[in-house]
């Protein structure tokens, strides 16, 4: 990749949706190889981007093109999904991708939360972030749990990027969405298992951010739960990268895993909205 593009990206952002992408790439190795420790290599030969990254960038592309159009949203989700058919989608989403006129299928899974972060960066108010997050979810994840997962994640990102402290973020999410964020990771981790539901994975991902000392710590927290590692690291990372900068080494390593098309979408989004 040309050096000028690296420099261009570096000048644009050290916060933003790169947090979700970094979390996804770091967690990808451990999605089906769960670990219960924070001591692990962040990147390896087997690291890769997955559906979390593809769908996050599909949402970013929608927002760049026309944030008021649900048709443009659906078009981008389908185009990106079909361009990367082996990214690791759930079976029902994969079926949705291959329908001519796809309808939402009542999903309560965490796909709505993993892809929502661009909505919180585009919005000029919490209310706008909520409207965009809900729209991003309901075209597939129109079950109330799926919508709440997207809203809670987006709210946490928006509040983090607008300098809200952690206690206020915790209080807001608990009060508005009914998530219990009072358990500690040391209480959760021993018995926690793989869970793709929003209700069973988003609160834990938010706690990974709340307990963290910095971006890397939030991602390590998420992977160490031994659950849906890439998605939970993407969710925790998406909140953490609104609160802290993503370290240079993690940032540069992450973008090495993106192809030119996905990297171009990332750059376009950051140039337009950051």
Short note summarizing the structure:
With 274 residues, this protein is mainly alpha-helical. It has helices spanning 3-12, 18-27, 51-66, 70-83, 91-97, 111-114, 117-122, 126-138, 144-161, 166-177, 185-188, 198-210, 215-223, 229-243, 248-255, 260-273.
Structural account:
The protein is mainly α and 274 residues long. Helix content is 63%, strand content 0%. The chain has 16 helices and no strands. Helix 9 runs parallel beside helix 14. The mean pLDDT is 95.
For the biggest sheet, the summary is: none
What oligomeric state do these chains adopt?
Answer: single chain
Mean pLDDT: 95
How widely separated are the two ends?
A: 23 Å
Beta strand %: under 5%
Helix content: 55-70%
Order of helices and strands: HHHHHHHHHHHHHHHH
Could you say which structural class the secondary elements and strand pairing correspond to? Answer: mainly alpha
SS field, number of helical segments: 16
Poorly predicted segments: none
- Can you count the beta strands? 0
Q: What is the 3D form?
A: globular
Radius of gyration: 17 Å
Descriptive key words:
single chain, 274 residues, mainly alpha, globular
Topology:
Blueprint (H helix, E strand, L loop, with lengths): L2 H10 L5 H10 L23 H16 L3 H14 L7 H7 L13 H4 L2 H6 L3 H13 L5 H18 L4 H12 L7 H4 L9 H13 L4 H9 L5 H15 L4 H8 L4 H14 L1
Helix pairs in contact: 2-13, 2-14, 2-15, 3-4, 3-16, 8-9, 9-10, 9-12, 9-14, 12-13, 12-14, 13-14
């Amino acid at each position: 990749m040309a050096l000028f593009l690296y420099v261009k990206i570096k000048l644009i952002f050290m916060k933003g949706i790169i947090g979700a992408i970094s979390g996804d790439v770091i967690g990808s190795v451990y999605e089906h190889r769960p670990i219960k420790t924070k001591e692990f290599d962040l990147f390896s030969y087997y690291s890769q981007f997955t559906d979390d990254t593809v769908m996050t960038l599909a949402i970013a592309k929608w927002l760049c093109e026309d944030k008021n159009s649900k048709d443009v949203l659906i078009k981008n989700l389908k185009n990106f999904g079909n361009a990367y058919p082996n990214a690791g989608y759930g079976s029902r989403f994969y079926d949705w991708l291959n329908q001519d006129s796809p309808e939402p299928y009542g999903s309560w899974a965490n796909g709505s939360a993993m892809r929502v972060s661009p909505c919180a960066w585009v919005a000029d108010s919490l209310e706008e972030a909520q409207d965009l997050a809900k729209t991003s979810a309901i075209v597939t994840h129109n079950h109330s749990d799926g919508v709440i997962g997207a809203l809670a994640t987006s709210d946490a990102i928006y509040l983090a990027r607008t300098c809200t402290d952690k206690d206020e973020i915790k209080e807001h999410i608990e009060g508005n969405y009914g998530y219990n964020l009072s358990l500690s990771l040391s209480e959760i981790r021993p018995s926690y298992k793989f869970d793709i539901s929003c209700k069973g994975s988003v609160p834990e991902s938010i706690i990974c951010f709340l307990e963290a000392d910095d971006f890397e710590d939030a991602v390590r927290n998420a992977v160490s739960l031994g659950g849906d590692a890439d998605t939970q690291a993407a969710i925790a990372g998406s909140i953490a990268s609104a609160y802290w900068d993503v370290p240079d080494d993690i940032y540069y390593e992450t973008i090495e895993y993106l192809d030119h098309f996905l990297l171009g979408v990332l750059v376009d989004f950051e140039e337009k909205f950051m």
